[in-house]
Design brief:
Blueprint lengths: L5 E6 L4 H10 L3 E7 L3 H9 L3 E4 L8 H4 L8 E4 L14 H29 L2 E5 L12 H20 L4 E7 L5 H10 L11 H12 L9 E4 L7
Parallel strand pairs: 1-2, 1-4, 2-3, 4-5, 5-6, 6-7
Helix pairs in contact: 1-7, 4-5
Amino acid sequence: MQRRTHRALVTGASGGIGAAIAEALAPHYTLLLAGRPSERLAEVATRWGATTVPLDLGDTDQITAAVAGLTELDLLVHNAGVAYPGRVGESTVAQWRETFEVNVTGPVALTLALLPALRAARGQVVFINSGAGLNVSPGLSSYSASKFALKAFADSLRIDEPLLRVTSIHPGRVDTTMQRDLVAYEGGEYDPTQFLAPQTVAQVVAQVAATPPDGHTHQVVIRPRGPVR
């Protein structure tokens, strides 16, 4: 078995896209899976020989301490996120606050805490964004706004940190619990064949991570086959 010498930290790996990313990266990286402690996260970590890092992206005060022991990091994948389906008039300030804390402020705080380790490794940062971070759809007001902000942060990081390679990945709708909730809000019938598989997005992450060092992928847009959604 090949010895894994590179380190990757993935957020939101307890299920869905994050768990698929852990599986895709496991053959090549020593994995750190960051998130709130849960049985699901522990199961994913055990399955792929990963280490869990207790982390709450909504509590920025404890993020620096949670990753203080990392001196080098080759890959940081920001996957964790929340969404509250609803049009502007249906949303609440509390929902907007939580959405931005988890989807924007948390990733910013984690990136800042890990900048020395990423610089030391000349590492990569991958943001799992969304099609909603490029085009706004009805019923995704706070989520879309947070994803636009996350893209702007990724673009700024790419410009300001020339030692790093920074990529935003914008999937269309993916077969996850979040999408089931959104379809239920829309009053539609859920058909998983109309959505991307989490493993498809994970393979895109693995391909970006495997880009030779003379290449820098800035942005990837991937949609389900068929009508663009």
